[in-house]
Amino acid sequence: MTSAQGTLSIIIPAYNEHEGAAEIVSFYREIRASVPDLEFELVVVDDGSTDGTSDALVELLRPEDRAKVVVFSRNFGAHAAISAGFAHCSGDAALTLSADRQEPLSAVHSFIEEWRSGADLVWGLRAVRSSKGGSNEFFARSFSTTFNAISTVPTYPREGPSHILVSRRVMDVLNAMPEQNRNVLAMAAWTGFDQRRVYFEQLPRPYGESRWTSAKKVKLVLDSIVEFSAVPLTWVLLAGFAMAGLGLVALVAALVMALVGAQGTGLMLVGVVLGAVGVQVVALGVLGQYVSRAGDDARRRPVYIVQDVR
Ligand code: UDP
Ligand code: MG
């Protein structure tokens, strides 16, 4: 590693993680001690926890830790929490970690090394996932591959990133981006700049269940696609054309069959009508995803509400 480069802010979104509070603080202190020529700052964002996460942290933190706990008024989701971390930190760069200590110290060092060698954005990718081979991994990979193929952010890693280090100039751009339904990692990819990758082995979650529920994952997938790709609208358009073409062929076939007195005309028409209706309903659904997010952006509500900074 080369010379000191200022301050690195460690950003941790935390939702009902009071069991991990002691580990968060000790891991942060371990990081600091292991890179003595860098200044550190800790920003934990309590994403509307109901289990006393922020109390547990405030109890443990000391002024010399240079730490703050940003408390949301309710649960806004991890991407809103990470966004708040970027907005509330003062570092020359910021690294996101999770509250359940699933990242090894060596991964933190790899991030710092890439930053020090000039990267503006460092992707953290799990070479080994703690939930290996499960539906989670399948889900994450399918999404990242599709997203990579159809989105306007081709630098978004196919492997499915879990953490990110961003330089101050990337953060400044992110802090000025207003979208309500956000995948903050995709937004970071969108900024361009020099992007590098580090791979690490994800440690098992030491307690409790993942706070990242299926409903939240589905929402993130839809947010990511709608905010960064218009390709599904093209698919709908093409499906409409295909269905209309098929309908025309079936209609001609039905007319011919009726003329020659063959059976099955009615069934054929029912099939065509059902197919056409299906395509229309899907089209409306896809359109609805785009329109509702446009509505959210038009309303310009805050992405999160900070109740307290402790
Ligand atoms: N998280 C959050 N808000 C939520 C869900 C999760 O801030 O609504 C945080 C959580 O506390 C953790 C990080 O996001 O620090 C990743 O969540 P988790 O470790 O549960 O997910 P996984 O390891 O399964 O990706
Ligand atoms: Mg985790």
Averaging pLDDT over every residue, what do you get?
93
Order of helices and strands: EHEHEHEHEHEHHEHHHE
**CATH architecture verdict of the largest domain:** Alpha-Beta Complex
Structure annotation, total helices: 10
The unique ligands bound to this protein are: uridine-5'-diphosphate, magnesium ion
The unreliable regions are none
Please indicate the percent range of residues in DSSP E strands (runs of 2 or more).
Answer: 15-25%
Query: What is the gyration radius calculated from CA atoms?
Result: 24 Å
Number of strands: 8
Structural shape: elongated
Domain module tally: 2
- What is the fold named in CATH at topology level of the largest domain? Spore Coat Polysaccharide Biosynthesis Protein SpsA, Chain A
CATH class of the largest domain reads Alpha Beta
End-to-end separation in angstroms reads 33 Å
How would you characterize the overall build of this protein?
- The protein has 310 residues and is α/β, with parallel strands linked by helices.
- It has 2 domains: 7-213, Alpha-Beta Complex (Spore Coat Polysaccharide Biosynthesis Protein SpsA, Chain A); 231-299.
- It has helices at residues 21-34, 53-60, 78-88, 105-116, 135-150, 168-175, 184-190, 214-228, 231-259, 265-299, and strands spanning 7-14, 39-46, 67-72, 93-96, 121-128, 161-167, 195-201, 306-309.
- Strands 7-5-6-4-1-2-3-8 form an 8-stranded mixed beta sheet, with helices on both faces.
- Helix 9 packs antiparallel against helix 10.
- The protein is elongated.
- The mean pLDDT is 93.
- Bound molecules: uridine-5'-diphosphate and magnesium ion.
- Uridine-5'-diphosphate is lined by residues 13-15, 17, 47, 75, 77-78, 81, 98-100, 102, 210-212, 216.
